[in-house]
Write a structure and sequence with these properties.
Blueprint (H helix, E strand, L loop, with lengths): L1 H46 L8 H17 L7 H31 L2 E9 L6 E8 L6 E8 L5 E8 L6 E3 L4 E4 L2 E4 L12
Antiparallel strand pairs: 1-2, 2-3, 3-4, 5-6, 6-7
Length: 197
């Protein structure tokens, strides 16, 4: 009877080891994925491309979860590579948690007010653009920003005009909109009012 319990305990320990080994790999893959999404979000915000990252608080929660998983992965002592993988996951996730907390805090303090003015849909209902009034207060100027909405939380800034507080809209066709006298061909990815143009 004691031998059966020993075999049962050995099986349980071996099962736990397999789970810890998988957690180690999951933590590493997840942290690399979060870094990729974060870096692409930074790049896309500079170049006015589609923003694919979830809201900041979701990224912070996922990076904290990854940090916890990477701490748990230290239980995998099967090889030197497993220990190195655990250290890499832990260090990278700690750095990402710190950076994301800093960025979310700074942007929430200094980004100013963003109030929805209007939402417009193309005649065929294929495109949706939200126009916001932005006001940075003493930190900057006020203006209007238009964001093209995509699936889930995806969005793309397509229009920016400073020192303006109202929007006049008219759809020319299913993919061309006229905003305050400026024509945008949304179908071809055209934007208006950004520094790079």
């Amino acid at each position: 009877m004691a031998l059966k319990n020993c075999n049962l305990n050995l099986a349980c320990v071996k099962g736990d080891f397999i789970i810890v080994k998988k957690i180690s790999w999951i933590a590493l893959v997840l942290i690399l994925l979060l870094y990729s999404v974060s870096l692409y979000t930074f790049y896309s915000s500079i170049h006015h491309m589609w923003m694919i990252a979830p809201p900041g608080y979701v990224m912070v929660i996922l990076s904290i979860l990854t940090f916890i998983l990477s701490i748990i992965s230290f239980m995998d002592t099967s090889s030197l590579f497993a220990k190195i993988r655990s250290w890499i996951s832990t260090i990278l996730s700690f750095i990402l948690v710190s950076i994301l907390l800093f960025v979310v805090t700074i942007t929430s303090i200094f980004s100013g007010a963003k109030v929805l003015l209007t939402t417009t849909h193309s005649p065929d209902q294929h495109y949706t653009i939200n126009f916001y009034k932005t006001d940075a207060g003493a930190m900057g100027s006020f203006g209007i920003v238009g964001e093209l909405q995509g699936a889930l939380w995806f969005r793309k800034a397509v229009y920016w005009e400073s020192k303006m507080d109202q929007v006049e809209l008219q759809w020319h066709n299913d993919h061309t909109v006229i905003v305050n006298g400026h024509t945008l061909d949304i179908g071809s990815g055209e934007t208006w009012g950004f520094q790079s143009e």
